TrEMBL record:
Membrane topology: Single-pass type I membrane protein
Source lineage: Eukaryota, Metazoa, Chordata, Craniata, Vertebrata
Subcellular location: Membrane
Gene3D superfamilies: Immunoglobulins (2.60.40.10)
Cited InterPro entries: FAM187A/B, Ig-like_dom, Ig-like_dom_sf, Ig-like_fold, Ig_sub, Ig_V-set
Domain Ig-like stretches: 267-345
Signal sequence range: 1-18
Recorded family membership: Belongs to the FAM187 family.
Native species: Ursus maritimus (Polar bear)
Designated name of the protein: Ig-like V-type domain-containing protein FAM187A
Amino acid sequence: MNLAHATVLLWVWGCLQAFEIVEKENIFQRTPCPAFLMFDNAAYLADMSFELPCHCKPEEVSAVVWYYQKDLGGSHTKVLTDFDGRVLTEESQVRVGSDMLVRFSIRMFSLLVFRAQPDDSGLYFCGTRKGDYFYAYDVDVQSGEGMVATFKDQGQEPFADEHHGSLHIFTTFWEWTPCDRCGVRGEQWRIGLCYLRSPGLSPRYRKTVPDVVSCGSRAVPRKLRARAREHSPELLVQSCVVPCEQKAAQEGFVAILSYVSKLGSPPWVPQVPIQFHWQRLGHGLIISCPGARPEHAVAWDKDRQYFYRTQYLEGVNRSMRVFIDHGNHLHIRFTQLSDRGIYYCWRQGVRVAGLRLGITSRGRYQPSFSDPETRSAVELTLIGYLFITAVFVTIHVCRCCCYLFHCRPNFSP
């Protein structure tokens, strides 16, 4: 290929890219904003991250502002913007339990909320700085604390639908996740969220199916919402087996290994990045899988021991010392010497990371309020002092009352 042909190809490629950008910008010209503001219903599980696109806006608006209200017409409104449309935060920097004002970003007019919590449920508006709204969402973030796990391999079935007159409460399941392991027996699951059907829903909320919205939607009256709160999300789990995809090794790496093997026994080379961590004996540990989300297929192994959710899922057995929560984190309560080893993490059917855990009983432990055990000890101590103080004050108040009202017993003959 000569220089002229290469120049022509680069020019054509640049024109196609420019055409693609113009097409993306013209989406807002082809999508008129509704004259009457409607709310799109969307439901998520706690700790998930979600994106709310601003599907329409006037052409002259260059930066959007997102607003949040707990209920329609509420007096308190949060403004979610930096007034420049810049990226405010990254998902990897978000901590659990932090306020929503530090857990969002605005990218290409879309609102991203990281690690959503049930308190983030409410109404989200896309608009301008002056308070003009273009598009709106009705977001329902359902808590995973009471999630019920159903194992198909054990013959278990999901909960039956509930019928209360014209109110129909049921579970809507998402698609099955990929198999969490390859080459060996793995597991896959699907998340089910609470939905209901009722004829008395507000017409301002746009529904995919007529008269059907998520249980925490603002379209549901408060009385019906309280009744549907007892229907917790579900997790359906089943076994699966898939082969591993063979990846070609790098030629240079193979040459180095062959050269080292000629000199002696080849060294142990980890297949995934491994991090080293020392944990004090008797203290708890929570391990996270890098880049994993609650909706991902995540699995945990210790050396050659597989932690299947059928046995190690949170809530299966209350006395478990090692368990996996619904956010795909591995918990170890009160670490023991037998916990030493390499813990591998699988994500979407591929082993991605490892943690070599060492247990030590030496060294002085520095207490910190970021440690859950330290916080629990302080809370128990404060509760004990408050209880003793309450008993002391109650006794003295009773003695004063008896003295004032002459209720003291008379022991004179």
